[in-house]
Structures are given as structure tokens and as C-alpha cells.
Amino acid sequence: MTGRDVIENLTISENEEKNISLLDAEDNIVSLLSPEEAGVQEEVAAPSGPLVAALTRAQAKKEAAGAEGVPSLEKMLPGVTIQSSENWQNEVILKQEKNPEISKIRLILGEKRKRKKNYKMMDGIVYRKERTGKFLIYIPSSLRVKVLENCHDSILGGHYALDKTLDLVKTVYWWPSMRNFVSHFVESCVKCQTFKPNLKKLGLLQPISSQRPFQKMACDFVELTRSSRGNCNCFVLVDLYSGFVYAVPTRQLRTVDAIKALSSLLPYVAVPEILMCDEGPEFTSKEFQDYVQKIGIKKLNVVPPAAHFSNGKAEAAIKKINNIMRNYLEDGRADWDEELPILLNTIISVKAPSSSLKKKKGTENIEEIRKSIREDVDRKKERKQAAQKRQYDKNRAHQEFEVGDKALVYFELKTQLGLPAKLQRKFRAGVVVEKDTPNTYKLRLHGQGVEGKVRRAHTALMKRFVDRRQPE
Ligand SMILES: [Zn+2]
């Protein structure tokens, strides 16, 4: 650990600058020397405005060692102003005295004036000798949170990750099992948890399997340019078994448009058991749900945002429609809705399961051929789905939440306006109130602007919230 690492990269606001300047004038800490130049002592005036302070390795060593190998207190308090260091010194002495373990050491070193290996007392404070020979202040349990508030939470602490925070603490302080304590403190920091987008790839693929045609279908709207007839969108219905696509031009994206489009397709499709759709208001409306129920669909499966990958066939079909339409519209044609049936036909490619056909050549029994084709298709589908799942699950870990679990949910940035993307909270905290599908949950959210709201989220966009334990 070097002091350079500690202070490096810290951009200091003008308020902070005042304190740093004091350090600068006294100890020449603020310097922008490179390690090669470290030997050179140079007075560097603190520039006005935000500045980056850096401490060279050689300087850090010198600072840390001090005349008697004990660092002076002013330099031991990252984030604590010099003015308050006297209070801090008194607080450390007081809390050290109250700590049974440290008070024993104080007694030996102080009143008894004896030696104790690895410990030293200076100005009433007990220090512990590190392997490097450096002496660090022995922090009693009652002050550890305060130290970390300074070394992690404060502006100077900068919410660094475990290693950097630990390095910063270790420039000055010591206590037993320090790494564990710092690790938990950093892990349970609410700011770090909600701002840092370190979302692991979580949630294994739950393949949507459809056993027969029309069992499961997915619907969505594709937005296009306005046709001469006034249609701006396309309602798309995909059969997840066959990948067969149906599309109907619509004027708008309302529930009434979705209902009209869906009912116009009813003569051509069997009513599916399950209809999948996204969270668009046109599909989540009571009206649409009532309609779906009325025509005999057993379940309307609303897929949360970013979970579309679990609905590959519908995604692929929409992508294809988009591609074909884009090419078509580029020619300046306003009659895409008239040509839709022909355009759709180019999407649908029915591949015959040739292998089984060949095998059964000459067989008279048509039922047998049908059966064998069906089996062949099913086997191929299974293999393909298994391969997709393997690919998707690579680098992913399964994570499951129970009702009552605290979790963080990633939010798409459009939900938080007014702040630059980088400054926005990436996660919101919430409590799992319901397990929806194997990979989706309903959460009651906490925090400004979302308090009490219930939202659905895919496990891939969630991570476990780490509660801070009360220090003993
Ligand atoms: Zn933090």
C-alpha cells in the first residue's frame, strides 16, 4: 500500500481543497510528482479550482514512517479535517480505554511501562505494528464504522471497491479481521449497491416450449411508417411451435387496435392456450385481458422488459418483419399494408424434415409418415432448444428469490429523467412480494419516486440486496 494510491484519482471539490491545502503547506503532500521524481523535494503550489492530489511512493514512506516510525495524526485521517483531528484523537483515546482488549494493552504499555511485542503507545494512543514495520492506530470496535464512513463513504473515500478502501484504511488504522469488516461494509453500502452497474449475468434460460401448433403464441406491435391508407403499425402474432407469423396493419397502438387485429386473425388460427405479450399498456389493459379471456385464451403471459430473449421466436419474427419492411420502405413505397401478405410469405420458410421422409419412402401408411415427421421435428426442436439453453446459460448462475427477500432491480434509464445517465441510480431496492414465472418476480419498491410501487422484474435484472449487519 502506498499513499499515492490513496490520494491518487481523487478529485477534490473546492470545499475539500481548503483542507488539502493545509496539508500541502505543512507536509508537501499535494504534489504531482511521478514516482521517478519522487526523490526530489519540491514545493508545489496548490492550483485553484478542483485539483488532483497525488502522493509519491517515496513521500508516502516518509510520511508513514515519521521520525520514530509512527505517523503523525494529521495524516492519519483520510477525509477528516485537520481542525477536527484533536477531537478525533480524544475520541480514539476514550474508546480505546473503554475497549477491554485495548485497555489491557494500555495498562501494560502505560502505567506498568513495560514492553509489549508489536504494540506501542504514543500520545495516549495504542498503535499496532504491521508486518512492514509501520505502526497503525488500533481501532476499537465502537469506532470502526466511523473510520469506514470516512474511508469509504466520504468524498475523499469515493466509494471505492474493497481493495482500494482497505488500502486506504490500512494507511493509518488496524484492527483484527479488518478485511472481513471492510468487505462487509463495502458490500452492504447502499450507494455502491444502487449505483454500480455490476450486474452479473443471472437467471438461466427457461425455454418456452410449445408442444403443438397454436398452444403458445406471442403478439407484439411493429412500428412502421404511415402508409397511404393511414396504417402506421403492424400487429404481429407468432406461433411458437411452428414459427408461423401472422400480421395485420393497424392505425395506432391502442388496445382497441390489438383486439381488432387479433379478432381478424381468429378465423385462421386456433385459439392458443397461452398468449405472450410485452408490458405495453395496450396489452396490460383490463380491456385486452377481458377480451383474451372471452375468446378462450387460458393465460395472458406478460413478459417483463429485457426478458424478450426468452421469447426467441417472436423476437426473430419481428426482426425479420422489420428487416423486410425497412428494405421495402426504403424504396419510398407507401403501400406496404397492401403488400403485407406477399411480404409475409417471404418470411415463412417451411423446411421439410427430409431425412424421415426419405426413410419412409414407399410406405403407404400416411399416418405413419405423419407420425415420423412429427417425431423428427420434435427431436430437432429439442436438440435446438437444448443447444440454445447451453449457449445462454454459459457464464450465468442461477439465482432465485423468495417472497420477502430484499433485492435490487435494474431500471432502464428512461424511467429517471433529468440527470445525465452516468449520475443516475442504476438500481432500485425492493422486496419480493410474489414469484411470477420461474424467472420473474413482483417487487414492492422503496425509494424516491417509486415508493410502494409494485413492479415486475426478470431475474437477469435483479441482484440480491446486502443488508448491513449491526456491528457487535
Ligand atoms: Zn459505497
TrEMBL record:
Residues 209-370 form the Integrase catalytic domain. InterPro entries: Integrase_cat-core, Integrase_H2C2, Retrovirus_Pol_polyprotein, RNaseH-like_sf, RNaseH_sf. It comes from the Eukaryota. One of its GO terms (molecular function) is nucleic acid binding. Pfam families: Integrase_H2C2, rve. One of its GO terms (biological process) is DNA integration. Its EC number is 2.7.7.49. Transmembrane segments: none annotated. This is RNA-directed DNA polymerase. It comes from Frankliniella fusca.
